[in-house]
């Protein structure tokens, strides 16, 4: 404790006197009945300064109000200094500057310093005080004496070199620590050299400290024996280290691991393996000396400043050098440089201009540093011209504006936080402005009038007297000079010279908010005077601090309504693993293509496999998935696989994390079994062996199967041994790694009481926290999550049936973010909540509603300090608990296992069924939602569509492709009536039908669809030569076909159209309309029936070029059946049939029209809206449907065309019908196609 110290009052206010005060160490300040310090005027320009006599370690400060009064402080600042100048504000957590004071005059409030301060002078600045009283204070400080050894270097030849004696036993680690105070922003601080030219050095560069690794390289050693060194940067820490304050550095090396600490921040570094057996032979500080030379190397890169307590493994090296004579000083002589800080609006400094004896010109100079790109630096009047000179920053460059003249001064990036010098000189109508003159930044101008500054000079904001057209300057200035004379800013502070407002004099309050960077995942940090910003463009993340993440699995994308495609997934959320672009087919993630390779005749053959994902991404994806598999197959001919006579396998593979572990089983078998799939099933070609290939036969055979044991995946390498014998042949296949399901996505718990909850360990989200989960409930309120600290807390709750509230407190008072929904949230449907809190802002997102944000205070507490258990579904007080389901709860990317904890917790049940209420709307086009334990499934059996959401109906027909769908004939139906599905019966006797399809084409005429029966009745859907839709019905073989026309024109325009035909008895309606969403196919279509009407036959011979999709005849979907059930459906497929995307709904017809017709024995014009006629017969036939889809080869098309031409010439011999003149405008430029791709389903 300190018993005696000198107290210095604000000399600027000393003439206004002060009340009785005493300060010092008092066991009980109240009982001593001391008065205390109280200035006459209570404002923020007062301070109390304490001189401790020597540098001291200060650990705490206690305050008390003035005895017997209503005078006390409620908050204050602390400043420290070694010299009584260049003060530095003490900040808690790098941000909090103020300390809480008293609430009355009697109680003592002690504030412990998180990091001790080492200083001789302490200054207390009142911020707030009792509004019913005045500033009043009794002060007590706590700490202990501080001893140190100091040495100073001039930046030239002064330096010290310490040759360290080798120790007989290698210590477990090397530790070098020191404190430094820099007077220049660049220079080599320390260099440690060892054997073989290995070295480590610490270098200041632009106020940052860099750690470098050095190697000695021999150059032409045979001739000259010379060598040079190469260095590599390992780490960078700190910023603004040239502020003339002490900074602490620790360098700790153990083998190839090294920790670099600057002040309170540590970075771990991996150095070269050569340093494992490295001993420090020499330490150089100041001017660097080489190990082979006794003379220091004079360089501008040498350190200029002071060092304190240079320790090597606990030994103070400076103390050892004190007895030596050298060119260093064992004290720290500091030049007095008074700076001033402009904190914002209303901050200005007013100084008198040039004296009357001046030569009529102007000579001004100053230095400044700032983070802002813009700001007004200097203003003065031109009395003779009646104008103003403005010197200001714009886009981080210096500009001067004189009357109507504007000039740009050389120099850029002046907002880098470094000190920059500015000199303005005017003589005889010649104006010269220089920025950092030593670097050559000089500009000249010749105004047509003399520039003088005989009035007042204004630095900073000048809006007191006139409107300021420029931004306010926020930054520091020093070394202000007028007429080459430095301005005494202490005199200004005492109000004896000039004037000022809202300034901090004798300190530079600049803070580097990007050191350390709060931008996560490699985001780039930039800053202004008050805030920092993160550029996340190259990080793969988003948000204020690059913390927001992509979905963690394909499963999550699926339940957002996404269909198959490429997506970024981030398997660990906001953790360190980067996002990975994968293809999601909504059943798994395909990360690499399969391989099929034939082996050369060498022994042995080995191959290593590389995956597109990084190792940590791969491992996390496998661990998180419900199921993973990878095909492994071996095709062999006289090539054995596993079993040998002595029992060791011929072949093996490695799988699992890292380089993998040796595995001796094959696809389809169990780990460690040394078997193949056939051995497990007991059907190998030779029962004496457990693999088909081990039979060693001359015929080709194979052993194949899926590897499903996740701990053994993926396959890393493969070694195949028995391929060197004559006649041995083999090939292997390693399939893609496929994973599906997300075991975290459906992890849920059901809370059936308000008093029930789950508890987990304390949540650690000190600087950034992201929380996401899904919930469903019928209750109107309840707490989802809560974690408490001593004062801090974090909570997310359903505050009402339409509101979700995110609240927390990090020491600045509670902050709340609220999102309100128009619809009730207690609708027993899943709702998603995503909350994030970082040092810049807090955000809350509910479902797809706009995100709500609240900015954090610029200066304030930002560490979230929690110490209690984390409560889920309730609170520590067991009040306001949540009733309902919580699912997929993730905190900072880590999923909490709610189900496991619920199994052992009363009142909470694992799992939560009932997903179709939330996700059923994703099943489209008559798809039916089916509940599953973990999720749901869309049943598309009643829909013409397929896909995960019954939304896919796109197919591609290549040349030679066709699909035919055939109903069973009547005699077949009677023969197999017992097995006939009821749906087939329903289509036997047709009193009506519903037919629909979508198409896009440029061809007219064209035949789209043909349906025929065994009794020569048919239905044909076509486009005539005018581009109109025609429907031909022939329901009686004795009558001519009815032709029903639609008056919708231009259907052959390359746009998308949907045609729907509905017939009930004798009434037929045709509707042509543009779809809301189209799935299309590209095909050429014609019918192979020999009984076609001659006109239809000739039209069919032309083929169809265009897109066709979602073909449906009553409940039958021929294209869907061909794709999904080609082996069990009554379909015949010729040629390849794959899915495709051809066409877009964006240009579809902008209208729809429906026409209703009634059938008779003659043709009706489509413009007749309603004509009532009746059919005299009833159709009782089984319809034979031939739907030929997809593209036919050109050769086959031409052959069919030639057949029809010959048939017309020989049999029909009639004139070409004018209704079907061919006009095919289809071409590659009109029909959109894509390369077929095969996806895993």
TrEMBL record:
<feature type="compositionally biased region" description="Polar residues">
    <location>
        <begin position="1219"/>
        <end position="1234"/>
    </location>
</feature>
<feature type="disulfide bond">
    <location>
        <begin position="885"/>
        <end position="912"/>
    </location>
</feature>
<dbReference type="InterPro" id="IPR050372">
    <property type="entry name" value="Neurexin-related_CASP"/>
</dbReference>
<feature type="domain" description="F5/8 type C">
    <location>
        <begin position="1"/>
        <end position="144"/>
    </location>
</feature>
<feature type="domain" description="EGF-like">
    <location>
        <begin position="510"/>
        <end position="547"/>
    </location>
</feature>
<dbReference type="InterPro" id="IPR000742">
    <property type="entry name" value="EGF"/>
</dbReference>
<keyword id="KW-0812">Transmembrane</keyword>
<feature type="domain" description="Laminin G">
    <location>
        <begin position="747"/>
        <end position="912"/>
    </location>
</feature>
<protein>
    <submittedName>
        <fullName>Contactin associated protein like 3</fullName>
    </submittedName>
</protein>
<dbReference type="InterPro" id="IPR008979">
    <property type="entry name" value="Galactose-bd-like_sf"/>
</dbReference>
<dbReference type="InterPro" id="IPR001791">
    <property type="entry name" value="Laminin_G"/>
</dbReference>
<dbReference type="InterPro" id="IPR013320">
    <property type="entry name" value="ConA-like_dom_sf"/>
</dbReference>
<comment type="similarity">
    <text>Belongs to the neurexin family.</text>
</comment>
<feature type="transmembrane region" description="Helical">
    <location>
        <begin position="1171"/>
        <end position="1198"/>
    </location>
</feature>
<dbReference type="Pfam" id="PF02210">
    <property type="entry name" value="Laminin_G_2"/>
</dbReference>
<dbReference type="Pfam" id="PF00754">
    <property type="entry name" value="F5_F8_type_C"/>
</dbReference>
<feature type="domain" description="Laminin G">
    <location>
        <begin position="338"/>
        <end position="508"/>
    </location>
</feature>
<feature type="domain" description="Laminin G">
    <location>
        <begin position="968"/>
        <end position="1142"/>
    </location>
</feature>
<feature type="region of interest" description="Disordered">
    <location>
        <begin position="1209"/>
        <end position="1241"/>
    </location>
</feature>
<dbReference type="InterPro" id="IPR036056">
    <property type="entry name" value="Fibrinogen-like_C"/>
</dbReference>
<keyword id="KW-0245">EGF-like domain</keyword>
<dbReference type="GO" id="GO:0016020">
    <property type="term" value="C:membrane"/>
</dbReference>
<feature type="domain" description="EGF-like">
    <location>
        <begin position="913"/>
        <end position="951"/>
    </location>
</feature>
<keyword id="KW-0732">Signal</keyword>
<keyword id="KW-0677">Repeat</keyword>
<feature type="domain" description="Laminin G">
    <location>
        <begin position="149"/>
        <end position="332"/>
    </location>
</feature>
<keyword id="KW-1133">Transmembrane helix</keyword>
<keyword id="KW-0472">Membrane</keyword>
<dbReference type="InterPro" id="IPR000421">
    <property type="entry name" value="FA58C"/>
</dbReference>
<keyword id="KW-1015">Disulfide bond</keyword>
